Amino acid sequence: MPVSIVLFEDNDRLRESLAYLLNSDPDYTVTGDYNNCNLAVDIIAELAPDVVLMDIDMPGKTGISGVTMVKQTRPETAVIMYTVFEDDERLFQCLCAGANGYLLKKTPPARLFDAIQEVLNGGAPMSPNIARKVLNSFQQKTDNLYNLTDRETDVLQLLVKGNSIKVIADALNMAFDTVRSHLKKIYLKLHVNCGKEAIAKALNEKLI
Amino acid sequence: MPVSIVLFEDNDRLRESLAYLLNSDPDYTVTGDYNNCNLAVDIIAELAPDVVLMDIDMPGKTGISGVTMVKQTRPETAVIMYTVFEDDERLFQCLCAGANGYLLKKTPPARLFDAIQEVLNGGAPMSPNIARKVLNSFQQKTDNLYNLTDRETDVLQLLVKGNSIKVIADALNMAFDTVRSHLKKIYLKLHVNCGKEAIAKALNEKLI
DNA sequence: TAGGCTATCACTCATTTGAGTGATTATTAT
DNA sequence: ATAATAATCACTCAAATGAGTGATAGCCTA
Asked: Which residues from B are below 8 Å from A193, CB to CB?
């Protein structure tokens, strides 16, 4: 049985040529193609495709919510984004929504067959730039963006683990009021007003 | 000028056959091969290779600290992990250390040339399983692991942004004491003792 | 050597928070 | 119909925290 594919792509010419290309190989069959993903839930439930190729910028719902809908309806359907966008914002939104691959439209069309095979074999096809961005996102290290001193960093690290001032003081062998003194400077430097905000900022921006 | 490559791999037979394979193509040259990465800093500083192939399990320092050393010494050298390990633990440690690619040893050797080209072109070659794991890591949403109710989730979301009880109460149109009531249940369910710990746990485990 | 930065500690005061206890209402499940 | 759960609100009390102010000592630099 050929691999069944559904396309969501608002550029009619592109969508039709993609369908033509994929259908030209008997191992693949496009069972549906749409210029928006507003009804993605019903479509996916009905067609139950193996693979979805999803554009991002479409009238109505974006491809990002498209991924969410597909995955909620049928998690086993593999979704490959197919878009011109390579900004971090949209990229990571798609990944968080559950995309299984991310190809830029400059990808040579022949590579689509490889990508579909790859995703069916449990892989995650990505354009080179995209893969690099994804890997880079793991390299934390904000080069001490807020100019915290060594001691302030010590205090912040313990604070972020949820320790109270008293415990931090014990752990670092300093007086209770010294910790509070450091905390005040930390809050100033991070532009926050309390420990809770500092923890949130430190974790979100990987300052620790 | 051929692409210069350094190998760190403690299996002598494998290392030698890799070197032989890569040297067989005049576009590539292995300028050094080592059975451990203890002296990686000096080696990289001296040889300044374009690409490093790095094993993980080696006598002395692991390939994980190997990546760190290479990247600290010469960030522009691309490091491709080449290992049998595909556990999340080591994988993400390597990525955080700055690895630019991650290939499993079951990769067909011919694919090494592609991978090296890919990494030189700003890509991030990964074995399919690895790429999938990496993408999956973005799908947060621990399916309500701690059985928080809808309202508790509302409160936690606001808490995590650093809001005070008073602000949360206003935002959710509930009484101050209602928020405190929800917070107590949240702390119970998360097994924490205070808001700071709750924030840390929520962010670390992506509960929100 | 004078000024700046860091690390240290102290004291006050008002606010915030955690913990304990208890209660009402509505919805859901058995 | 009864029990369980969720959501709501109230009150107390002690502890933790933030903000303000100030001080001392060591180190580095201009």
From this structure: 162
